[in-house]
């Protein structure tokens, strides 16, 4: 048996989507794998049992595997658990061209009949997805299931099990068809995948079949087993895991309906511009709707961590959950207004409230439209300084979204995602092809590619990381790469092979000494000589360093004379300057880029860049903050790199400086 203890670094822990991906990874191995956490254990191949463990970020978990490929399984699963972004999908709705812009406009222009009676005042629920909406209410209250009480005789049990399995297959097939609907985003598809995993979970299936063999008919067995599992989730302390009870109920209802031969109520019949009112909405129900036609969502149940909230945010649909209304009041509503940022809900609002909501919708529409105009803008400040607004990317799949958002190149391409969540190191040819395609997609705009930035907190297969008490201060980034030329040189060769595109810039992470830059330049010279000898083309490039350690700040003047540019990584720089672990919530109040000490460090690096005649950019999360962009520009920053969703707003901000 192979056993390994790891600290879980997956952001927010093993909730539904990371759990689904973790289980899929576990199933790719033949060995039996158990994960233990908080004194309890579960099969790593059961999504339901895994979620019920309630594995949270920073928990310590133990992986145990027994079988032919046990060592490989433990290594791969440990890597997954130690990867902060494992299982993550982009949830932020783009600031432009969202569902709100279409449905909200319909709702804002709809002619609503005057109300015959005064309306009640506003009530507040959980603010789940920002934005304002008003429109005709579309009541979505599926009828309660009528489950037969018939008992199954022992001789008929296997036939009933077969009927259940057929209904299960039909249900999962309907899930997959919903996943293929046009207009769904990648995160929507991941949510539906999680539902499929719940439906096909071995524990869930075993529970249903056991109940049938004990005499229950299939619909009763499904609903009873589903209710037991949902109750287990609802009893948990973690709000995200409690919200998974909604997914269990959704799956249970779908299978029961298939067994009963009934068709459920559908959001596909909803008129454009409507506000959906419901007890709760399952992610699958929402996936079957025409999302661009939904003006807003109001539910009596649910939380900001539910899948309907996640999907609403991804599509820019205003939503309030946990709204304090009786079901009868929502069913009787003619018009519903809501503010998804404050949680305010108004049922049949009075004229003054309706006017207020419509004014807010108009303001939001104007802001969205103003940002659309910035997609093709190359922003300049009012005194004529041109600032590049670029995208932070982690894979080629994100290229189209960045181009659509108006990215002026790539300010940070995180190459570690090529290495993580796989069972072998990527080869030089694969890397060269990836970097070449990235450079060509954005040419002639610059593409800044960061060399491998991994350590004990995000290891990769093929590199053995010993335990470190504080991996953020350990063997990571360029420190590891310089000691592992067998890993580093193939990447440098691949980067050089992409330079004929003419826009490639190489960025070195975790620099703390001029000698590290010199060592990398020596390796690059070796690689160029090797490529020349092999007849492989390469071209000119710029070499830059991340400004993220205090040492790099204090030595910025000396380092600037050896490189072509600086890129400030505000996330790690803030962590190191403030001596505050950015994964530790107890010191979160110290982890502020706007802290005077952090701003002074950035000012010092910018001054050194200016004096050396090189350019400086910012690629951390703070690059997109409207309150900090003027500070960056004032200090000579000429490039800001961020999530594509923030590009339009950042461009607008620059033009107002």
Named CATH topology of the largest domain: TIM Barrel
Count of discrete alpha- or pi-helical segments spanning 4 or more residues: 25
Strand content: 15-25%
Decide which structural class fits the backbone: alpha/beta
Biggest β-sheet, characterized? 8 strands, mixed
Residue stretches low in confidence (pLDDT < 50, at least 5 long) are 89-120
Count of distinct strands: 20
Determine and state the CATH class of the largest domain.
Alpha Beta
Per CATH, the architecture of the largest domain is Alpha-Beta Barrel
**What is the global morphology?**
globular
The total tally of domains equals 4
- Between the first and last Cα atoms, what is the distance in angstroms? 62 Å
Question: How confident is the prediction overall: mean pLDDT?
Answer: 85
Fourth-level CATH superfamily of the largest domain: Phosphoenolpyruvate-binding domains
Q: What's the alpha carbon Rg, rounded to whole Å?
A: 27 Å
Strand order of the largest sheet: 5-12-11-7-8-9-10-6
Tell me the helix content. Answer: 40-55%
């Amino acid at each position: 048996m192979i056993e390994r203890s790891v600290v879980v670094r997956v952001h927010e822990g093993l909730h539904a989507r990371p759990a689904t991906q973790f289980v899929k990874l576990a199933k790719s191995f033949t060995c039996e794998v158990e994960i233990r956490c908080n004194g309890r254990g579960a099969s790593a191949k059961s999504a339901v049992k895994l979620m019920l463990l309630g594995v949270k970020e920073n928990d310590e978990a133990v992986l145990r595997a027994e079988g032919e490929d046990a060592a490989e399984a433990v290594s791969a699963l440990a890597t997954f658990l130690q990867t902060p972004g494992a299982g993550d999908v982009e949830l932020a709705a783009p600031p432009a061209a969202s569902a709100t812009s279409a449905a909200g406009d319909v709702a804002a222009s709809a002619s609503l009949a005057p109300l015959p009676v005064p309306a009640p005042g506003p009530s507040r629920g959980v603010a789940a997805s920002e934005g304002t909406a008003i429109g005709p209410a579309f009541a979505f209250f599926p009828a309660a299931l009528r489950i037969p009480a018939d008992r199954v005789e022992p001789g008929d049990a296997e036939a009933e099990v077969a009927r259940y399995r057929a209904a299960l297959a039909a249900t999962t097939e309907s899930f997959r068809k919903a996943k293929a609907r046009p207009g769904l985003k990648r995160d929507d598809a991941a949510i539906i995948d999680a539902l499929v995993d719940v439906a096909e979970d071995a524990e869930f299936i075993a529970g249903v079949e056991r109940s049938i063999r004990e005499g229950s008919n299939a619909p009763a067995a499904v609903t009873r087993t589903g209710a037991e599992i949902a109750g287990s989730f609802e009893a948990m302390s973690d709000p995200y895991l409690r919200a998974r009870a909604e997914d269990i109920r959704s799956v249970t209802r779908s299978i029961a309906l298939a067994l009963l031969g009934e068709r459920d109520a559908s959001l596909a019949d909803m008129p454009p511009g409507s506000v959906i009112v419901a007890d709760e909405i399952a992610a699958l129900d929402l996936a079957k709707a025409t999302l661009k036609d939904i003006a807003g969502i109001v539910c009596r149940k649910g939380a900001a961590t539910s899948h309907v909230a996640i999907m609403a945010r991804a599509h820019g649909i205003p939503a309030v959950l946990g709204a304090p209304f009786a079901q009868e009041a929502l069913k009787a509503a003619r018009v519903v207004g809501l503010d998804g940022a404050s949680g305010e809900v108004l049922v049949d609002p009075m004229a003054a409230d309706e006017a207020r909501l419509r004014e807010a919708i108009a303001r939001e529409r104007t802001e969205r439209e103003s940002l659309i105009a910035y997609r093709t803008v190359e922003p300049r400040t009012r005194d004529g300084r041109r600032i590049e607004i670029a995208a932070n990317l982690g894979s080629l799949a994100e290229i189209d979204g960045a181009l659509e958002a108006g990215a002026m190149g790539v300010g940070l391409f995180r190459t570690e995602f090529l290495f993580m969540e796989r069972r072998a190191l990527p080869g030089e040819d694969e890397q060269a092809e990836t970097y070449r395609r990235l450079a060509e997609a954005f040419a002639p705009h610059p593409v800044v590619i960061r060399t491998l930035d991994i350590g004990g907190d995000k290891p990769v297969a093929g590199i053995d990381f010993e335990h470190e008490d504080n991996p953020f201060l350990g063997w990571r980034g360029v420190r590891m790469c310089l000691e592992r030329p067998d890993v580093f040189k193939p990447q440098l060769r691949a980067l050089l092979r992409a330079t004929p595109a003419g826009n490639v810039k190489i960025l070195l992470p975790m620099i703390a000494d001029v000698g590290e830059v010199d060592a990398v330049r020596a390796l690059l010279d070796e690689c160029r000589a090797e490529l020349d000898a092999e007849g492989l083309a390469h071209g000119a490039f710029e070499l830059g360093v991340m400004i993220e350690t205090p040492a790099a700040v204090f030595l910025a003047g000396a380092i600037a004379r050896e490189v072509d540019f600086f890129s400030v990584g505000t996330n790690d720089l803030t962590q190191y300057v403030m001596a505050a672990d950015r994964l530790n919530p107890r010191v979160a109040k110290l982890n502020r880029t706007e802290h005077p000490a952090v701003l002074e460090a950035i000012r010092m690096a910018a001054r050194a860049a200016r004096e050396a005649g090189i350019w400086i950019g910012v690629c951390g999360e703070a690059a997109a903050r409207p309150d900090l962009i003027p500070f960056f520009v004032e200090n000579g920053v000429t490039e800001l790199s961020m999530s594509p969703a923030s590009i339009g707003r950042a461009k607008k901000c620059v033009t107002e400086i």
